[in-house]
Design a protein that fits this description.
The protein is of the alpha/beta class. It contains ten helices and 13 strands. It has two domains: 123 residues, ATPase, nucleotide binding domain (Nucleotidyltransferase, domain 5, 2-Layer Sandwich), CATH 3.30.420; 173 residues, Nucleotidyltransferase, domain 5, CATH 3.30.420. It binds beta-D-glucopyranose.
């Protein structure tokens, strides 16, 4: 059976047909509309188009950036999108005439990396996606850990700093505020304001009017010390958090995804160092390895397509 996978991101909706070996057929991409109803229409149009072209499609998975209920039906809360108790399955399923499951976007990406990407061969793996938010997926003994209410693995909302920065989840001090793509932009902006090593960041902000992730990554690749320092700060924060995740889940591997992960070792090296300072009993226990995601932009679509094949149990 083929499935359709759809990944609703902040800037684009990606979709495609997924086969049983994680192959992606007919990948499609459209910009994400602002209005939730228009998002729904765009998703329905994509599913209809793909399922008409591939009549052996038998199920649909939709990945969304938020807390999902245990039935994999409703987005109960999204920290960075205006979804509150959004009944995505009930809205979309009757319009496409196929069974639909809703999954958290990072769970979908983590599942794809576990099955077909950087995590294949492991049994216990954690995926962290660095984007607007920080997404998490926990694979334990070869299964995706969903928790008692469906929303386990929200690792971006682990408290990192007491009385820390306000987070979109309603709490304060979440790791998402210190290690996400948005945190990278904030820190790069602060370094630009301070001058000194931030002067190339300041110059880029002046000429482009903003400091986005792509510009910061470009400066990192060019060896700019201000941009490298901004990256080191988010990477260390995430590495430290991984020490705590090790205490809770004892994974064999952390897979790091999101656009910034393509910087590779320059991102992973400070992460490993900070992890070593935070993991309990370090040196007296086996630790985890760190790897960069392999499926990157397609992981959400492939993972959610594969999870849809499993059905609704
Ligand atoms: C959300 C998660 C999501 C992550 C990445 C977080 O803020 O709470 O549900 O997986 O961002 O999109």
């Amino acid at each position: 059976m083929l499935t359709v996978g759809i990944d609703i991101g902040g800037t684009k909706i990606a979709g495609g047909v997924v086969d049983a070996s994680g192959g992606l057929i007919d990948p499609l991409r459209v910009p994400t509309p602002r209005d939730p109803r228009e998002i729904e229409d765009a998703v329905v149009a994509m599913i209809t188009d793909l399922s008409q072209r591939h009549p052996s499609v038998g199920a649909v998975g939709i990945a969304a950036a938020g807390f999902i209920d245990r039935d994999r039906s409703v987005v109960t809360y999204a920290a960075n999108i205006a979804w509150r108790d959004e009944p995505l399955r009930a809205r979309i399923e009757p319009r496409v005439g196929l069974p639909v499951v809703i999954e958290n976007d990072a769970n979908a990406a983590g599942w794809a990396e576990y099955r077909f990407g950087a995590g294949s061969g492991t049994r216990n793996m954690i995926m962290l996606t660095i984007g607007t938010g920080i997404g998490g997926a926990v694979i334990t003994e070869g299964a995706l850990y969903r928790g008692g209410h469906g929303s386990a693995g929200e690792l971006g909302h682990m408290r990192f700093q007491r009385d820390g920065l306000q987070c979109g989840c309603g709490q304060h001090g979440c790791i998402e505020q210190y290690a996400s793509g948005r945190a990278l932009q904030r820190i790069a902006g602060e370094l630009a304001d301070a001058g000194g090593i931030g002067s190339a960041l300041a110059a880029a902000r002046e000429s482009e009017g903003t400091l986005d992730g792509r510009t910061i990554s470009g400066l990192v690749s060019a060896g700019d010390s201000g941009a490298i320092e901004a990256l080191r700060r988010i990477s260390s924060a995430l590495g430290e958090a991984c020490g705590t995740f090790q205490a809770a889940f004892d994974p064999e591997l952390f897979v790091i995804g999101g656009g910034v992960s393509q910087l590779g070792e320059i991102l992973l090296a400070p992460m490993r160092e900070a992890y070593a300072t935070a993991v309990p009993a370090h040196g007296n226990r086996p630790g985890a390895d760190f790897a960069i995601a392999r499926l990157v932009n397609d992981a959400g679509v492939i993972g959610v397509g594969d999870l849809a094949r499993e059905g609704r149990h």
